[in-house]
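Notebook p. 47: complex prediction with NAP.
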Amino acid sequence: MDGFEVGPLTVSRLCLGTMLMGTSTPVREAHTMLDAFIEAGHNFIDTADVYGDGLAEEILRPWLARHRDQVIVATKVRFRGSDPGGEGLAPDRIGKACDASLRRMGIDVIDLYEVHAPDPDVPLEDTLEALDGLVRAGKVRALGASNYPAWLLAWAARTQDCHGWAPFAVLQAQYSLVERSVEMELLPFCRSAGIPLTPWGPLGGGFLTGRHGRGIVPPAGSRVAEAADDLEEAAQRRATEGNFRTIDELRAVANECGASVPQVAIAWLLNQPGVAAPIIGPRTLEQLRDLLAAASLSLSADQLRRAGAHTAPPEMYPNRFLAEQNHINPEQPLRRAGHPVSR
Ligand SMILES: NC(=O)c1ccc[n+]([C@@H]2O[C@H](COP(=O)([O-])OP(=O)(O)OC[C@H]3O[C@@H](n4cnc5c(N)ncnc54)[C@H](OP(=O)(O)O)[C@@H]3O)[C@@H](O)[C@H]2O)c1
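Predicted complex, structure tokens below:
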């Protein structure tokens, strides 16, 4: 499968998330999974300074010592951690957090450095200028944002543009067949601005696996069964009729293709325009091997339609008003004076 352009980087169409490495996934198995991932032809790895409070980045260090040139590494800054301590996106903290991530991973440049979430306590300009400084200093190749609302991402992109600062080259946001809010504002903006999306939680935290469904109690020990009520993957949040029907459709499509339910869920995401690489989050080597096959799974237009039929987000004003009464396509790429029409 072809790669995807993310700013100056070419990434594979699957990204391997490391959130569980060193905690739910033992280190040795994590390294075997990383080996299997690159052996399958992929190069994109996602981590964060807060995963295991730095443990996920530390686990990557011995593996990266052998494979640094073969991979694109994304990490993140924002949430509370013990090194450098504190939290947030103040310039001073960003600088220290970047150095700490570089040190933990034993590398001298981070390919993609992402803000994990907005920080309303710090002026946006201060954060963006500090991030630009990291690119200019050669500590970071490209920048990304995660968990930004569309208005803030648009504001940030315009601010970076005006100041000539390094732009956000990617958005990392939750996106799956059971969480499609990004389709309302974020994804149309990202497509217009040429900012690819890397979906986290592509299986809804484990819901889109075939182990959950109408009347099925999530298996003990699974993420969904254990999730606290305020977590995105909490069982009660997923237990909607639309989600259960989606599982039924995925099972039917999977049977038609000789594939698994998770493979179909990931393949659906790969077919959404503007999606660069779903960030897969397998807990075991067996789960990873299953997901790798999604990259080459081809779904027909009808299968894609059926998979997505029950969870489309509601039609929203003003898009509904513009499209239905005024025949204006609200998703038409933005025209900008002096720029070619963007993707
Ligand atoms: N930017 C952010 O705020 C943010 C937030 C969350 C995650 N992330 C990134 O996104 C990555 C993926 O997120 P996620 O873990 O929520 O992804 P996910 O794909 O929605 O959920 C992963 C879970 O699905 C189950 N699973 C995965 N593959 C399976 C298979 N083949 N068969 C059966 N079950 C399977 C496992 O559940 P069980 O453990 O129950 O078996 C696994 O823990 C993370 O590693 C991290 O890098 C980013």
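Notes: Strands lie at 4-6, 9-11, 15-17, 44-46, 72-77, 110-115, 140-146, 168-174, 197-200, 279-280. Residues 17-19, 46, 116, 146-147, 172, 200-206, 209, 222-223, 262, 279-283, 287, 290-291 surround NAP (CB under 6 Å).
Next step: compare against the earlier run before touching the bench.
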